[in-house]
Amino acid sequence: MLALCDASLKQWESLQLEKKQAFLKGLKDGIPICLGYLSVSFTFGMMTAENGLPYWISLLISMTNLTSAGQFAGTALILSGGAFVEIAVTTFVINIRYMLMSLSLAQKADPAMSAGQRLLLSFGITDEVFAVGVQQPGLLTAPYLAGLIFAPYWGWALGTLTGATATSLLPAALRSALGVAIYGMFLAIIIPPARKVRPVAITIVIAAVMSCIFRYTPLLNRISSGWVIILCAMAAAGYSALRYPVGEAGEEDAQ
Amino acid sequence: MNLPYILTAVFVMALVTYIPRMLPLVFMKRKIQNRFVKSLLEYVPYAVLAAMTIPDILYATSGIVSALIGLAAALILAYSGKGLLTVALGSTAAVFLAEQAVRLFI
């Protein structure tokens, strides 16, 4: 009886060690993501402070959303006083891609990962966490994923806080120029892939042209911005999805 | 500053960001087979960001001329593959310089 206890204790200890090592490996893999996040979230903090949002709200947004495009868009709508349904649908449409990532990670997830762990860890699935997690050899364990999410999460929060508190120190002329920063960042996200993949470029052009039509056509310009974004995005992405369906590996077909 | 509105909106954002991440990992274990849906999901983020940027970027500064200069700077920097912060700050710098120049000449 005692021997049995001893054996299971040893087994338990080695399991704990294994978990710890997996967590540490994840932590290490997450550090480059964390560094990238610091600069992006710094920009987010700057932008929100520039638009008059208290720093603790920016921090709250970053710590509860942990996403770039979605929280930028949602925050922009909050600042313009958008309706809740607009904010919800816009954020949801932008974040729909996470379903695909979560789905891929679900195929790789350790069957031992409990429902509670899945509920908690899925909160940390971002583009970069997905990219690193999905290329791991073998099963994706809960301790590894927890380690991978840890540094980027706190980097995202810290960058936001720093950006939001630094902005009030800036002169007025510079703060007015900062209005363009968020859009500069959007362009930095969409232009490099558009260069490489023609259907992405076509999608962007269609969405941009439609957005201009909604803005400058009488009557159409009365539709609020959240819905315009959704209409443009679904039309442009729908067209490209029909015309240029992606291949089995998730890559666009060569044109 | 309408705090109840903002906090509710933040909660709504957090919820609709969490749900798409959570549902598949917790409940689904099989792959999406529909090619159209897969493709749509692939293109949606680009379309959303493009529709948000154009033409709004033109009204993001104190004048359309400096905004155009900022847009040009952002496009050039993004096209040459610079990082997010570089493009954001580079276009900001371009707008700042343009606005200072305009003030000098008027």
Which tags fit this structure?
heterodimer; A: 255 residues; mainly alpha; disordered C terminus; B: 106 residues
Low-confidence stretches of chain A: 249-255
Report the span from N to C terminus of chain B.
Answer: 36 Å
Seen as an oligomer or otherwise, the chain set is heterodimer
Number of helices of chain A: 12
Q: How many individual β-strands of chain B? A: 0
Distance between the termini of chain A: 69 Å
DSSP helix count of chain B? 4
Q: What fraction of residues of chain B sit in β-strands?
A: under 5%
Order of helices and strands of chain A: HHHHHHHHHHHH
| Helix fraction bin of chain A | over 70%
Write the layout of secondary structure elements.
The complex is a heterodimer of chains A (255) and B (106).
Chain A: H1 2-50, H2 55-65, H3 69-79, H4 84-95, H5 97-108, H6 115-121, H7 127-134, H8 142-166, H9 172-177, H10 181-196, H11 198-216, H12 225-243
Chain B: H1 3-27, H2 35-53, H3 64-79, H4 84-105
Helix pairs in contact in B: 3-4
Describe the structure.
The complex is a heterodimer of chains A (255) and B (106). Chain A is mostly helical and 255 residues long. Chain A contains twelve helices and no strands. Chain A has helices at 2-50, 55-65, 69-79, 84-95, 97-108, 115-121, 127-134, 142-166, 172-177, 181-196, 198-216, 225-243. In chain A, helix 11 (198-216) packs antiparallel against helix 12. The model of chain A is unreliable at 249-255 (pLDDT under 50). Chain B is an all-alpha fold and 106 residues long. Chain B is built from four helices and no strands. Chain B has helices at residues 3-27, 35-53, 64-79, 84-105. In chain B, helix 3 (64-79) runs antiparallel to helix 4. The longest helix of chain B has 25 residues, at 3-27. In chain B, 50% of the residues are buried. Chains A and B meet through helix 1, helix 2, helix 3, helix 4 and helix 5 of A and helix 1, helix 2, helix 3 and helix 4 of B.
